[in-house]
């Protein structure tokens, strides 16, 4: 009887794509140390987060194993999934940090503490809605424009685009947020 250890990666991946859990387990065993090492380097050696991301990458690989194309090395395929998983986790962490810490500068016309607290809470809620609703690029443009008071030229430089495109990004973001902001303010 032949064990999974006797097969090359492509054969194991094809078998796993057909539903063989043992074949995928062998692939995971072969690559888990290398993927964990890569993910740890990506996140700067933060152990627990990196281990969670690596595990998530293997879950995603299992879910997508039927799409594996054996014209490419399995290692390339699994590292592509690991890299994309790292990027996704990094983006999600940035969004969480924004939601936790993002509060637009608020200027108060009155020294009333209650009104100041309400205004601060409303500003935080608006930025929460923006972070949830907009793409990362749109959120960055809107944040730079309204929270940091940057010019369109400065926004364009940050986004690596033209000034007219930066203006369009801000316009589309505002249009997308308008109905949500009206609901939040009312």
Features:
mainly alpha, 186 residues
Described by the principal axes of the CA atoms, the overall outline is: elongated
Largest sheet, in brief, is: none
- Rg calculated over all Cα atoms: 23 Å
Question: Class by helix and strand content?
Answer: mainly alpha
Give the N-terminus to C-terminus distance in angstroms: 71 Å
What is the arithmetic mean of pLDDT? 81
SSE run: HHHHHHHH
State the helicity in percent bands. over 70%
The counted number of beta strands is 0
Strand portion: under 5%
Low-confidence stretches: none
Number of helical stretches of at least 4 residues:
8
Structure notes:
This protein is mostly helical and 186 residues long. It is built from eight helices and no strands. Helix 2 (21-42) runs antiparallel to helix 3, helix 6 (136-147) crosses helix 8 (163-185) and helix 7 crosses helix 8 (163-185). The radius of gyration is 23 Å and the shape is elongated. The protein starts with 8 loop residues before the first helix and ends with a helix.
Give a nutshell description of this structure.
By secondary structure, this protein is mainly alpha-helical. It has eight helices and no strands. The longest helix is centred in the middle third of the chain and has 28 residues, at 74-101.
Topology:
Blueprint: H1 9-17, H2 21-42, H3 47-64, H4 74-101, H5 113-133, H6 136-147, H7 152-159, H8 163-185
Helix pairs in contact: 1-2, 2-3, 2-4, 3-4, 5-8, 6-7, 6-8, 7-8
């Amino acid at each position: 009887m032949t064990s999974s250890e006797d097969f090359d990666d492509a054969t194991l991946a094809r078998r796993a794509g057909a539903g063989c859990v043992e074949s995928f387990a062998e692939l995971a065993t072969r690559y888990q140390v290398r993927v964990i090492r890569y993910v740890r380097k990506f996140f700067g050696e933060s152990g627990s987060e990196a281990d969670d991301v690596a595990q998530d990458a293997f879950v995603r690989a299992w879910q997508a194993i039927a799409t594996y194309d054996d014209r490419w090395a399995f290692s390339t395929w699994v590292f592509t999934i690991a890299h994309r998983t790292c990027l996704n986790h990094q983006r999600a962490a940035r969004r969480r940090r924004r939601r936790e810490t993002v509060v637009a500068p608020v200027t108060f016309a009155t020294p009333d503490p209650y009104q100041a607290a309400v205004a601060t809470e409303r500003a935080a809620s608006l930025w929460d809605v923006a972070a949830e609703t907009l793409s990362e690029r749109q959120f960055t443009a809107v944040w730079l424009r309204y929270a940091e008071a940057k010019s369109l030229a400065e926004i364009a430089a940050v986004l690596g685009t033209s000034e007219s495109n930066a203006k369009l990004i801000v316009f589309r973001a505002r249009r997308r947020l308008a109905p949500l902001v009206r609901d939040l303010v009312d």
